[in-house]
Amino acid sequence: MARLGNISLVVEKEDDSASVDATSYPVEQGIPMTDHVEQKPDEFSLSGFLLGNSYKTDYEYLKKCMNNGTVLTYVGRNIAKNVIILDLSGTVDSSIANGKDISIKLRQIRIASTPWVKVKNSGKKKPVSTKPSGAVYHLVKKGDTYWDMWKKYGTSIAQLRSWNKYPDRRIPIGVKLRVK
């Protein structure tokens, strides 16, 4: 008895294979040169039976898992976590009264993880301030200049000009100037 996901199987034969891919470059004399070996994922082949009154729905479930790429765990003589179904075939004949003869090909996959975390939205909108946080403003009086603001608040004249956009000799009285 074996399990693939939540389906019970009667497995007669399990085959597993592991392989690598190696690059090959021809040379003038001797055997080709290889500079890279790449491991391929492990694969498993199962042959056996789906038995019982639910064999049709079990077969459809496995087919759906294959089509959706659902990651499953196989437990039989071999144990394989994180496998997907690559191939699924079944045969119904008169020798099996209440079931189906099946063949399944599985491939082990590696699931990438990411440090990204989804932030939950409370649904409430936060007010957006048009003024930068921590900004300090000065109410202009007659005779105020950027020089005076620099002396009083320590912010450079160039920065005061870029924040406020008023010409040096025409700062309107009564406006708020950003000074920090």
Helices and strands, with pairings:
Elements: E1 2-4, E2 7-17, E3 20-22, E4 37-39, E5 43-51, H1 55-68, E6 72-75, E7 79-91, E8 99-108, E9 137-139, H2 146-153, H3 157-164, E10 176-178
What does this structure look like?
With 180 residues, the protein is of the alpha+beta class. The chain folds into two domains: 2-24 and 35-108; 137-178, Membrane-bound Lytic Murein Transglycosylase D, Chain A. It has helices at residues 55-68, 146-153, 157-164; strands spanning 2-4, 7-17, 20-22, 37-39, 43-51, 72-75, 79-91, 99-108, 137-139, 176-178. It has a six-stranded antiparallel β-barrel. The longest helix has 14 residues, at 55-68. The radius of gyration is 36 Å and the shape is elongated. The mean pLDDT is 89.
Mean pLDDT: 89
- The SSE string, one letter per element, is EEEEEHEEEEHHE
Strand content: 25-35%
Query: How helical, in percent, are the residues?
Result: 10-25%
- Count structural domains: 2
Structural class: alpha+beta
**Main sheet makeup:** 6 strands, antiparallel, barrel
| Strand arrangement, major sheet | 1-2-5-8-7-6
Number of strands: 10
Number of helices: 3
Termini gap: 75 Å
Shape: elongated
Whole-number radius of gyration? 36 Å
